[in-house]
Design brief:
The complex is a heterodimer.
Chain A (H helix, E strand, L loop, with lengths): L5 E2 L2 E2 L5 H19 L1 H15 L5 E3 L1 H7 L3 E6 L9 H15 L3 E6 L3 H13 L2 E7 H6 L1 H9 L3 E5 L6 H15 L3 E3 L10 H24 L5 E5 L4 H7 L8 E9 L16 E6 L2 E6 L23 H8 L3 E7 H15 L5 H13 L8 E6 L7 H7 L3 H15 L1
Parallel strand pairs in A: 4-14, 5-6, 5-8, 6-7, 9-10, 9-14, 10-13
Antiparallel strand pairs in A: 1-2, 3-4, 11-12
Helix pairs in contact in A: 2-4, 3-12, 4-5, 4-9, 5-7, 9-10, 12-13
Chain B lengths: L1 H9 L5 E7 L5 H13 L4 E5 L10 H12 L4 H14 L4 E4 L2 H7 L1 H10 L4 E3 L9 H9 L3 E6 L5 H8 L6 E4 L13 H13 L4 E4 L5 H7 L5 E4 L1 H10 L2 H9 L3
Parallel strand pairs in B: 1-2, 1-8, 2-3, 3-4, 4-5, 5-6, 6-7, 7-8
Helix pairs in contact in B: 2-4, 2-12, 5-6, 6-7, 11-12
Classes of the chains: A alpha/beta, B alpha/beta.
Amino acid sequence: MINRGYYDGFGGAFLPEILVATFDELDSVFTQAKKEPAFWEKYKDIMSDYSCRPTPLTFAENLTRHFGGARIYIKREDLNHTGAHKANNVMGQGLLVKRMGKTRVIAETGAGQHGVATATMAARFGFKCTIYMGEVDMMRQRPNVFWMERLGAEVIPVLDGTRILKDAINEAFRDWVTNMDTTHYVLGTACGPHPFPEMVSFFQSIIGKEARNQILEKEGRLPARVYACVGGGSNALGIFQGFLDDPVELVGVEAGGLGLDSGRHASRLSSKDASIGIAQGYKTYFLQDNDGQMRETHSVAAGLDYVGVSPILAQLKEKGRVRFESATDREVVDALSLAMKKEGLIPALESAHAFAQAFKEAPHLSKEYIIIINQSGRGDKDIFTIADAFNDSAWQEFIKGKAEEYNA
Amino acid sequence: MLESYLLKKLQKKKILLMTHIVLGYPSFEDSFRIIETMVNAGVDLMELQIPFSEPVADGPVILRANQKSLAGGVTVKQCFDLAERVAGSFDIPFLFMSYYNILFKYGADRFAKKMSEIGLYGAIVPDLPPEEGGVYLKAMQKNQLAPIFIFSPTTPDERLKYLDSFGDGFVYCVARKGVTGADTNFSKDLNSYLARCRKATKLPLALGFGVKEQKDIDFLKGKVDIAVIGSETIRLIDDKGVGVVGEFIKSLKI
């Protein structure tokens, strides 16, 4: 192992010794695959055959008219098989697992989308699969737990710590240090020790490459701004990578939770509450106290309440290349409601953060401008949370009825 | 400093015993009592874990001790205070064990200086490979403290030598894959791994992960210099209370 995987001081590989050889193997397999144009072609083929790629770039005519400002386009990652951009990363890592000759995959999941995607990939490739999920997230995302189990994965509730995503990551690492001979840890976002940030953003870059071609084809010019929500940062890096070298403003939207002043949020790059630290194997901005203990985070979206953020995004923030904003739970639910009513789209609560910020800005932009919002996933999984947010009495009656049926 | 202390001790004993506690668990007063009990029962050196919210290398027993300690409001300052108190009270070497973020946030330089001032001998930081540890290593050296590095069964021979070139005091050999607190198979496989470790370093060897009873220690005699009992004492405290730890340590024939 040599010192590598740094992005202007963020990143690195802070690994327990037992995993060093495993990471060396992974790094070497990935580096080799990345060099082969045929590997990317094979990856693209699988994604088109199995996951509906290229996903469309949909013109949101009604929302554009509603706001009367910029022309709004939506990159439809929700149309990937399993309903989110997560499929891009897991299928790519699945190909690497095959190359390494391993037979079992493990993963962590917050919103459940990465867990469902990993369980799906495992079924397709014939790997055994274990998914770690915080107990709190299991409660919030029961539909996804159901799907993971039906897909043949074992879902293990994590009862330690704050019982959300970061704790599931720790548990997955614990499994990995015991079983690394047969097992690959399919990390779900562009975080963790090198080479994960680079590897995950490599596979997710398919979003941005497509989006850039599509907007040039449709409009003959580049967008003014691109919006993406930021949990760990994988969908944001995915779409941003298509436009990094262009004069396009990139906007990452974090979970503002109950508001940045409330202390109950997950904004690492758009609030003053985060500081640089080293945990879970890499160096980045973390929401932590002065001693270096990670703080509790909050978001209506289970996939965004992660305590750290991709080291690549931390670098892009420092360089001033990406602007980071946050959207509150309330703004997110309102944005979701509007997207449903105006366009018939149901973005995931995570993705609705990007919508919320775009909706704040679109009316103030000239009609000449184009903006793209990355709809990273679909919202069906959020039905319980959304029904609660809307206080939907018919839904509550339905659930009560179901409960009575089960009790009978 | 630590190495010469250990070598001197090893002239009188076949194998030394190192134990581990999580500071502030169940409370700081209990931590002090546990340390006192362990020292009186004949423990040769101790690692004092500063709790961290993400202890990735630790298994369930130590993980929960970390969490409970933090839930009780434990701070790094309190850990330093207790370490100072025990280093001044008892005549065995004490080491800090923690994860790198604790040192990083404190400032690795300042952290090492403070360790030296209060009389600690070194530190174990399991998530800090030497490649990432430049600042830490320099600070430890400047303050004559031992950075303890870890050998694992997956470490190739070449890397064992590489790690040895940064280590001081002793080398901590992890007995098996996995996290702390699970069972270890003390068998021939372990012998060949330990032989590889012995070949790679002249420093004393410690072995931890899964050491919990007399027969484990008997197996290790003549193969390593220090047996490390970690989770087992915390498990005993959890199940039977602080008082039992002394009897347990005394019962071990070192």
